[in-house]
Amino acid sequence: IKHRIYTLFAEKVISSHPDNGLVYPFWGNYPFLSGLVKFKLVFLQHGITKDNISRWLNKSDKNISLIVTASKLELESFFKYHYNYHRDVPQLLGFPRYDALEKKEDYREIVIMPSWRRYFHHSTKEKILKSNYFKIYNTLINDHSLIDFCKKHGYKLIFKPHPNVYRFIELFETNDYVTIDSTSNSYNDIFTHASLIITDYSSIAFDFAYLKKPVIYYHYAKDYHFDLEESYFDYKTMGFGEVVDNHEELIDLIMEYVENECEMKDQYIKRVDDFFEFNDKNNCKRVYDAIKKMDYD
């Protein structure tokens, strides 16, 4: 009850998620109380917006007052697609949580972090087992040559898929070396500790690359649920690491990175520098100042 009262009297709500069910704690009663809610919603984002998600994040549905972005290209995408926000709503400020990211070299972890697929929402376990997604990643985390190589070089292997995959996590075959992580451990800890990540289309690659750590994109099939033609981000020309489409090439590339102490290559460091507007640990201050300025607008 206290939470609901605070919400009714709030002037601003600051959240990394903008969905009504998370922002408004009234459940099914929200339509009857919406007229009492006067706060301005600040959307910090929980990942770089690289795809056209205007059908979900548009003004008529979310009515956000401030959207925090971290890149000029990301900012421009809010005006390119039909989000329909006034030009002063999306602002280039940098993500506050990036200020807390640290680069630590001593954990020697390789983390496999694929995104999810929309069809998972209505899939049975039988359908998941037959999917390319399951077969590809189950094969990867049980590849004996990769496991033996990582053992030899002292690197841990961790499989941490998107939380929307957790209800199927027990379907993946286990072994005595690869950790299958379905916990709610801090993603900042993962970014800080990991030496290399393998993903497909997940926006976590931006967070990891922000630390100048190497990324490999595994695009084994065109089964992503967003239309890549409507994304400003081209993985091959703008990505922060190599794009591979088959298992053998991926294994070879992982081994190459391990043999070179998982150093990000110069061409990808330049892409990181070109993409992100800020890397100065002042994102929190810029966002705070922008929120305070809302009092006078």
CATH superfamily of the largest domain: CDP-glycerol glycerophosphotransferase, C-terminal domain
What is the class of the largest domain in the CATH system?
Alpha Beta
In total, the number of domains comes to 2
Order of helices and strands: HEHHEHHEHEEHHHEEHEHEHEHHH
CATH topology (fold) name of the largest domain: Rossmann fold
Helix content: 25-40%
User: Cα-atom Rg, whole angstroms?
Assistant: 21 Å
Could you walk me through the main structural features you see in this protein, from its secondary elements to its overall organization?
The protein is an alpha/beta fold. It has 2 domains: 2-94 and 280-296, no CATH class; 100-275, Rossmann fold, CATH 3.40.50. 37% of the residues lie in helices and 12% in strands. The protein has 15 helices and 10 strands. The strands form 2 sheets. The protein has a 6-stranded parallel β-sheet, sandwiched between helices. Strand 9 (215-218), helix 12 and strand 10 (243-244) form a beta-alpha-beta unit. Helix 9 packs parallel to helix 13. The protein is globular and about 60 Å long. The two termini are 31 Å apart. The model has no long low-confidence stretch (mean pLDDT 90).
